[in-house]
């Protein structure tokens, strides 16, 4: 004869099941939200003319991939023709040709101002407009300020400040007259915070951020959106957390981003989200740099800082 189930035992079983079911439900909803968000992002760039500067390095390459599969008409810029062609072949080989456009390749050295102006003209002549400019190229330098020559300081400013602003200025009249367009500056948290041994790089990133912050306020009335995406550290493809014991793995799982930085794929998807949602200022940072920025900017108009 079966034993009667006493109500307390029933409640115990239900309580044990509630938590996993709740977690399963939340994960399912999150998954659906991410998928819908990804598809929505893609539709936001379909048929759009998108220029990516330095499409051949880590983040630029990933941006090229997400925008290409999203159906954008891509203009891929880079300093090295062979690497551009390799990227082109990789994009073409995996994408569905019925849903994507053949990218245009353009040689571009951002520190050569006349080359930048020629490229802007070439792109406008070819497509008639640019819908989205992703200003991603950048030159890095690390070392004590007194050991870095003035020539190198100037070179960094050319590549990271004068180059991007020249390209922007050349494309802006077209965006203003069409009353549409978006400029995304991929910057660095060092554009807001100073750290040792990065004087030239951080100064160029501060300058670029200053320019694009002002521009945002200036072109808002023409429906041109200016966005800045500032990661702390982008992980290299080759750096992978090694195998270890489980405590080390758990530690690595939770502090992966702190230790290894954001993966280029995650940053590229954030760039895509930034375009879709027309976000103004995005920081991909852990709580400590975020708090430092918050502390530095206390007193500024709140609407100005759209933290992620
Ligand atoms: N990596 C990070 O941890 C990190 C963190 C925060 C923000 N960011 C920002 O994210 C963006 C992409 O960084 P990344 O790490 O993917 O790139 P990256 O590995 O630093 O490579 C930089 C790329 O820019 C190119 N470049 C340099 N000077 C140029 C110029 N004058 N004209 C055209 N291209 C030029 C380089 O070409 P060559 O190799 O031929 O010189 C290289 O392909 C940059 O704006 C960077 O500041 C990076």
From TrEMBL:
Gene3D superfamilies: NAD(P)-binding Rossmann-like Domain. GO terms for molecular function: oxidoreductase activity, acting on the CH-OH group of donors, NAD or NADP as acceptor. GO terms for cellular component: cytoplasm; membrane. Pfam families: adh_short (PF00106). SUPFAM superfamilies: NAD(P)-binding Rossmann-fold domains (SSF51735). This is Dehydrogenase/reductase SDR family member 7C. Belongs to the short-chain dehydrogenases/reductases (SDR) family. Keywords: Membrane, NAD, NADP, Oxidoreductase, Signal, Transmembrane, Transmembrane helix. The chain crosses the membrane at residues 12-33.
